[in-house]
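Quarterly update from the structural biology core.
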Amino acid sequence: MTVTKKAAARGQFDLFSGATADPDTNGSIFDLPVPDEEWDTRERLGFEREMLGLYVSGHPLDGIATALAAAGDTPIAALLDHRIPHGRRVRVAGIVAAVDRRVTRRGEPWAVVRLEDLEAGTEILFFPAAYATAAGYLTEDAVAVITATVSVRDGRQSLLGDQVSTPDLTTAASGRPLTLTLPVAACNPHTVRALRETLQRHPGPTDLRIDLIGARGPRLLALDPRFRVTTSPALMGELKALFGPACLR
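Predicted structure, tokenized:
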């Protein structure tokens, strides 16, 4: 690196003036090798989030939304709407987007965890006792199911994390229909109308079947293709609100 007289007089220097090409390669210092292999999807998405702060070419949860939504009982969007009362325990599923690790005045580790699904994100607090058992699961980009308690104080809502597990995603990309399990007693004009309206709000490529449980045993019914759905956390949450948390498989 050299400094010209004029630049030196101005207190400046030319960053590249002393740079030369490599005599062994007959190339420029700017002739950098470009890798010719493709990054895998997870690595590419990780770079996108790190550099841009968001995913561009896809999302880590693409293809597993059905299994992930079935693993939880409350969509994150429902928490953001403050529809869940104080003291309610919820199970939310998503990807761990960030872990802010902290230490109490007594030197005990705890963390603020950001969990995101395909539609929303929220922060969950893991105080020392819970964090001690959950820390191994709470790593960035990990897919997790978190059990938490809703706390509302002075009009402000917090989520207090308790347990963390890894969801079973082995059937996530199988392309199998979504099955809704219902007792015959739950099928009345009101619930049937509510189900139809719910399905129509979430059109998509996935077939829906109803496993109807009656006195003579279960009957598996296939719905008309007009009621195919997108298996998003929002749909799963609405179905569970209508028929209970155990209605999906």
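DSSP finds seven helices and nine strands in the chain.
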